[in-house]
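Handout, section B. The chain below has 394 residues.
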Amino acid sequence: MTHRPAARPDTPRYLTEERLAIQELARQFTRERVRPLADELDPQQGTIPDSLRDEMAELGFFGLMIPEEHGGLGQGVFEYCLVAEELAQGWLSVASLLARGNGMGGEFTQQQCKELLPRMAAGEYLGAFALSEAEAGSDVANLSCRARQEGNEWVVHGTKMWCTYADQADYLVLFARTSPKDPAKPHRGISAFLVDKQRGTFPEGVSGTKVRKIGYHGWSTWELSFDGLRLPESMLLGEEGRGFYLALGGLEVGRAHTAARAIGLAQAALDDATEYAQTRRQFGGPLTQFQDVRFKLARMAADIEASRQLMYHVATEIDSGRRCDREAAMAKYVASEMAERVTSDAMQIHGGAGYTTDFAVERHWRDARLTRIFEGANEIQLRVISDDMLGALR
């Protein structure tokens, strides 16, 4: 991976000294620890070691957006995305692990914040989402997993899909229907629950089957079956029946985070392709003697920077407190589409070598493809954007 300088003399003013220090910390960690592990483990579908997670905790990455009073760094979405972009240049899965802390779940009571957030910032209480289902991916209102109240407990039955890190997490944020679905307003009646569990196992009443993936290696993604899981009534997150809004409430940050991860993958692919083109010799000289290769690299760099600036804008708007659903959808859409295109071009520059696991560019390409799907498929992003422009379809 090419070592780029932390900043040029004309660094934009919004990249303050503090932000540059955070960025350089993440960049150095990625260069020295994340990228070497990814190059070793991804080809064999190995697992992110606990030691790396512990190092991330020591650096404060799991507490970036957790208030200082609860043991975090008290930073904003901008800093969170800076770190995510750098980590993704090493391994998408590690950049995604970042989101398992940083207040994941939301709607914690004051007492829960006091008890749980310091542990989360320390990397001792990391979570996983149990939201999607086989028939309810982007259609979150169509959930069928049910939680029925029995005395002072909730009893859960149903299945969930795409639950990455569910085995290693210390808790799950589970979404289930707690009242019958109203065909006219299907989003009502969905509630969210905090499911405490022991790291490395599933609680009684929960079993899992690993999803076979083409990428996003380093950790496991699960289909979970809930067969009589019992939860104390105190494990309800927020108000009963308001889980749909809790799920949507974090989408702006999630989409900015996905844009940052996509940009990181594209930057890694550009750096690798640039280095390869400068050293690979054909017809008596390096590949960079050919205008087509030079222009391809230039287009890749321009597309990455355009996506990065849009992501920075969205992160700034979120930190300012302004709702920006439309812009967040745009950032996720533009960055993920760009990442698949750029990583594919990087593979083309590598030629046949790019289609082997001897070079990391194929990993960047496989993982970039996922960014168009998760955190809301790009077709959903276009729906959000067009509805905001033209009004919702009826």
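Note. Strands lie at 127-130, 146-150, 153-164, 171-177, 190-196, 206-210, 221-232, 236-237, 281-282, 285-286. Compare this with the example in section A.
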